[in-house]
Amino acid sequence: MSQPASKNPLKHLRPSDLRGIAQLATDATTGVARIVEGVHQSVWDTLGVAGRAPGQTGGITGFVYQAVQGVAQLLGDGADRLLATLQTRMEATQGAEPGTPQREAALAVLNGVMGDRLIESKNPLALPMTLHHQGAALDWQALPAGLQPKVLLMLHGLCMNDLQWTAQHQGQAVNHGEVLASALGYSPVYLRYNSGLHVSQNGRELSSQLEQLLAHWPVPLDEITVLAHSMGGLLIRSALHVARQQGLAWPRKLKNIVFLGTPHHGAPLERAGNWLDTLLGSTTYTAPLAQLGQLRSAGVTDLRYGLVLDEDWQGRDRFERAHDQRQVVPLPEGVACFTVAATLADKRRALADRLVGDGLVPLRSALGQHDEAQRCLQFAKESQWISYRTGHMELLSRPEVTQQLLHWLAPAAA
Predict the structure, then answer these.
(1) Which of 239, 373, 235 is nearest to 306 (CA)?
(2) What architecture is domain 130-267+325-413?
(3) pLDDT digits (tens, 9 = 90+) for 186-231
(4) For residue 221, what are the contacts with CB-CB under 8 A and spacing of at least 6?
């Protein structure tokens, strides 16, 4: 009789994960203490009792808050040193084991929500950007045999990873990339990245890695085709902009880009988060609580309007309520661009197009349409396709989406 699968979540952890979790616990404890102290001092301010600094209490109360934060940091530093030693010893004897899908999915979500903070604090849970083929990260010095002269680059969205391109539809596994690779002769290459960083930061790193791919590919590279889901579509637009500014070679191999549910002009859920920041910051008592809303990552706030360039965010408070100030970035010339948009509705309606869409991205945003003519992305009519009664994540599993991709890309294989 077979044993039931273990439900112990600890089996998915690596030694480095324990260090990362301990660091998060320390940061959370000190962060909560700062927020509580800020609320406390807000009350004192209304009574005319000054603190030692804005948002910080004075006297014995201030000493208590300082002690809580100091002790938490001291314990956190001690735990980090101990776990670092344990990690070194365990990895020396056991080696680095591949992560389970459950672990990788959890890491992807954590990085999407607060990946920028993980980088700033040097937390080992922060994901580096890596290119994968057949489930393994590419090593430029030992590339696998059998690679084709055509690459299909797969870019996932916010809080996701490369493994999630394999989705389920009615009990059957669906992977658009594998079908396209088999039918059209591509070598599929999957990107894994920290989606909590600014899109432009990831775009710059992706551009650099694609230049490396072009230099080290074992056969002459004839074509790069990109299939990008959600935020991944913003990422490739950013990478291409950087590459052309720097005069890199890989854009000359770029032939097709297919966008799946990309928020080219942003998503309303992030705009709602920005409204929450404004609301919480509008009163003395709730202003310290605005820090909770500001825990969300740079990648998340980039989705307010679909930022793809450094200039769109540098020198600005990303939590400040402001209108769309992006620089206009049109679709790239000389590249065939296609877009698949989804809507939960069974047909197009003006209100549903703007507010509902696929549950996360409005239909018009995915189609590149905008009220300001100069911001509209000029997809050819035959290069647009809408999947009805479809949610944002369902774009990864619908067989009809696969068929539409084959219809668009098959002529390029002739």
Answers:
(1) 235
(2) 3-Layer(aba) Sandwich (3.40)
(3) 999 999 999 999 999 999 999 999 999 999 999 999 999 999 999 9
(4) 149, 150, 151, 213, 214, 253
Percent of the chain with pLDDT over 70: 67
Chain position carrying tokens 């809507």: 343
Name the more confident of 54 and 144.
Answer: 144
348 exposed, middle or buried (CB, 10 Å; 0-12, 13-18, 19+)? exposed
Residues 6+ apart with CB under 8 A from 336: 255, 256, 257, 383, 412
Which among 170, 265, 147 has a CA at the least distance from the CA of 217? 147
pLDDT for residue 40 is more than 70: no
Given the structure tokens 């209490």, which residue do they identify? 57
Q: pLDDT tens digits for 145-164? A: 999 999 999 999 998 999 99
34 closest CA partner among 60, 61, 69, 71: 69
Joined together, the tokens standing for residue 47 give 């009574």
- 79 contacts: CB under 8 Å, gap ≥ 6: 22, 26
Question: CA-CA distance, 263 to 303, in Å (whole number)?
Answer: 7
Task: Give the integer Cα–Cα distance in Å for 42 and 288.
Answer: 8
Beta strands 130-133 and 187-192 are antiparallel
Residue 128: closest CA among 191, 198, 189, 193: 193
CA–CA gap between residue 389 and residue 346 (Å, rounded): 5
Residues 6+ apart with CB under 8 A from 234: 199, 203, 262, 263, 264, 302, 306, 307, 308
What mean pLDDT is predicted for residues 254-262? 98
Q: Using 50, 70 and 90 to split pLDDT, how confident is the model at 90?
A: very low
